[in-house]
Amino acid sequence: MKKIILPIFGLLAFTSSLYSQEPWTLERCIEYALANNIQVKLQELNVKVNEVNLLQSKMEALPTLNINGNHSYSFGLVTNYITNTKESLKTQATSFSISTGMPIYNGFQVTNTRKQNQFDLKASVADVEKVKNNIALTIASLYLQILYQQELVEIARRQVELSKMQLERTKVLVSAGSLPEGNLYEVEALVASDELQLVNAQNQLNLSYLNLTQLLELKSPEGFQIAKPVIPAVDSVKLMNENPTQIFSTAEGIMPQIQSARYKLQSSEIGLKIAKGGLQPRLSLGANYNSGAQYRIQDNYDFTGDPFFTQIKNNASKSVGLSLSIPIFNGLSARSRVSTARIGLMNAQLALESERNALYKDIQQAYADAIAAEKKLQASLKSKTASEESFRYTQNKFNIGLVTALDFTTAKNKLAQAETDLLQAKYELIFKTKILEFYKGLPLKL
What we know:
Layout: H1 2-21, H2 26-36, H3 38-59, E1 64-80, E2 85-105, H4 109-176, H5 181-215, H6 236-241, H7 244-254, H8 256-277, E3 282-296, H9 308-314, E4 317-325, H10 333-399, H11 405-439
Antiparallel strand pairs: 1-2, 2-3, 3-4
Helix pairs in contact: 2-4, 3-4, 4-5, 4-8, 4-11, 7-10, 8-10, 10-11
């Protein structure tokens, strides 16, 4: 058995290891987070609570039915049913009742409560989607941050390799007497500085991985890698042809935060109707059936001598009636609830307006950032090209001793900064463009 089981467990472990090493795409990260994030699960529990509340409000319109029973022992003075006088006896008695009731009119509070709970349920479902959208946007940001940090690590690594190559050339030139020995020390210091930059870039990459895995609720970032997609160029002409108002007109109808605020406003409107219903009369229908039997304990017979079921039949009483309640004065409690409901309605109206303003500002900001990033990208491309030419020219002059190591370091740092600025503008443009596409209803994907 060991020969059979151990290889199976080994195969399973190997398969699990391969799965954990498989690169994660952006779509997979978002899907996994939405299925495992605690905030999403908490919001989904709120949906279940509202489902229960809606079911309960529907049941409130149905008649009630209750059965009550009682069996008691009495010692001392009891009523003799024959003489209708008090006697000192030991008796036991059984009684039960069946009652039913149904509201006929209560200011439409039952109907309006059901409607309000329907809007509350829809709002809670929209709140789940709102949380999911926030998580998806955060994951996209962290995912692009990792891609950005990966390219920064590559830039830092190329800088180290370039400095090491320059160090080897400088050693040869110093040995040949073409350059002073001080140049060698300066290049060695440059190599050490570039290696430090590489370590810092790698640390930032590791931190970016940690942030993403924590949001995914993974236990450890060990073995976690993201897939490096081929990102298409952003259509800047199409971006310029759109404006925040057009994007907002689309986003307003599909974004869950707006839908949730609208549902909550409708719920508050119904809540005001419910509160006003408390000022109206209440009419209900009720019916009861009561009966019972009584025995002496010592000789096991009742006062009349009738058996148990005969007593139940003879003692039965039935009633059907209407109940009317008209509120006149109850410490202004009903009117206070109306005032509170009005304030809640105004609060819901302001909340909706606030969500609309916040969404429009987010779209405006994303649009302005995208335009700025596109301009920065074009400028960074020119700067990178110029910095490359300047660096090659300075490097050639440094190799023949016409410029100092400080001039060489300055030119190399300018090139590295130009490459960094280009990357920053590139990923900023990608992220802001993805946000604008997301507001138009397109899924987040690379």
